[in-house]
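Structure catalogue
Derive tokens from sequence
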Amino acid sequence: MNTAPVSEYDDNEIVNHSPNTHMDTILAARLSRRGALKGGIGATTAALLGSVGLSACGGSDDEDAPAETPAALNFAAVAKTNADLCTVPPGYQVSILHALGDPMMFGDGTWSDAGTETAESYDRRIGDGHDGMYYFGLSDAGKFDANRSDRGLLCVNHEYVVQPYGLHPAGSTSVDGKRPADEVEKEIRAHGVSVVEVKRKAGSNDMEMVRGSKYNRRVTSATEMDFGGPAAGNAKLVNKLSPNGKLAFGMNNNCANGYTPWGTYLTCEENYLNVIGRAAGDDAQRSASEIVALKRYGLPEGRKNPYGWDTPEGEQYQRWNSKVSGASAAEDHRNSFNTFGWVVEIDPFRPDSKPVKRSALGRFNHEGAWPAPAKAGEPIVIYSGDDARNEYVFKFVSDAKWDPKDIDGGTAVGAKYLDHGKLYAARFSDDGTGVWLELTHGKNGIDANNALYPFADQGDVLMHCRLAADFMGATKMDRPEWGGVNPLNNEVYMTMTNNSQRDGEKIPLNAANPRKGNKNGHIIRWKENGGQTGTKFEWDVYLFGAREDGSQSENLSGLTAVNDFSSPDGLYFDQRSGKTDGLLWIQTDDGAYTDVTNCMMLAALPGAVGDGGKIKTREGQDTIMGAKASDANVRRFLVGPFDCEITGVVVTPDGKTLFFNVQHPGEDKGDFTTNTFTSHWPGSQAPASDALHHGHKRPRSATVVVTRTDGGTIGI
């Protein structure tokens, strides 16, 4: 037996080889013509349904509306640190809500700190790799209450099983290239989503999980789900487990998320290539169009399953290899790959309800699904980023118009709004404007006669919307990650994490990516025109990540010790009840600055498109950025423990409780014989009064609660 850490697929691999113009080239052309952008803020506060608001996008025509009185950050900046702790400002405190392996129900033992929990028990335990999340207020009647802060349901994504695998006694193992079935089963059940009831502790704004709540639930890589929308029943979804192509079994590598105004959770499959392989020689069994589609989505023949989930004996594991082995699709798993990469809707208020994969929102590396503010009589609009190098930004507009009477209608209402509508991909023009390109079968050459790929029907278009966007000439983006909308002016922000391969030669410098070796990433923003359903927008660059000394990427935004950061990833506009101040939370997933500091979360009060101007980089490249950062408008709020990513953030409607996630602390290496790891968090921080987490040696992903010691509001 050998301990064999499972490798993950290379999410930096470029699978988009279309000739579409890259965003960098477009921005360079724009800047050479326009120079500095005009100033001014269009400040119209989005009308949200109660306090419901995750990362949302919306348009506004009220460009001359008066701005609200600016908010002010209310905390001292946290210093950079490599401490194995969650470090927060003076006057703030943290607690651990739940961590990998914590029991959600009574009858299961507490975390052993030895990886001895059974696979079956993970149907009732907190999963691994905490990521995106959302808080839903819970009324005494068990209904969705968008204004309730002391009791709610918290949905948390569990993206992946983290090295060095606290799940197993001695890490992941293999024998002659085959994984043990019990380890694979545990990993399958540790993926997905947890839904737990949370409530405030007596006399405090701190939160605790309600163990044994009837709402507590796991949705995993083994959960049966329905397909909804145009792809449901499509021939390319037919497989041995679903001969009619209307069922899916499990969801995988769920990263970011979204929500709906009727009170359901949207969780998004991103790096699902981690769990799928394809046999060598399989191309000989495929049509030419199938080969095109499989390669465009990163699954060439001979690609091994990174997690090895297809290696144990047993039919149930063969679905993790998308190969032709039977006489028809209904007799094998050749189409299993196509069942992943979707947005999944979960009703947290009905624990017996079946999740639904909403195919109308398209299939790709979904980083999230961020809705525009819901307005009565107008369509539901949802934005998504395809998190891979040189991929696209998408937008879904429902056919149905929002009716507030549909609140608390569950996935039945989801079918009304999410199964019928139009999907668009973004094209950024060189004059600073942009258009949304409709991806509809039978329009603009997206049909069975298309030379790039023969689209059979709308389900096929949605299943392979990358190819449709290639054909339409959408703009290649630098890994669109998390997004959000500023509720003061409806401008949309999206993180572009980094690109160390931008060498200035094979990948040339340009205005949107003007720094050679761009190790520290940046944030792009744009402004919708014509309302949230409009097909045009304007855009520019907001903020550049860098070390304060500019020793890696050039410090164009003037970052200092209080706010320098690298590799922005998570992003969330805080939209609390009663007052919206445009508070932006920025989270990092970094490897370039970790010699100085662990990953972090910053708070920002951004301005608007055009509040900066034209500058030139040290390489002589012209670019435009927003207003420079200062201690007043960007400040480091917290730093996480060693080897972690900070991800997922949501605030209660009253603004007094903040949740965030720590993912993969201590992921680098570990010694299972001595229980020695690069991090021992959360055991290193939890007090003795927290028996579930105190003193444990194995690092675990976890959800953290932040409150003020004086009971005040968070951040502002």
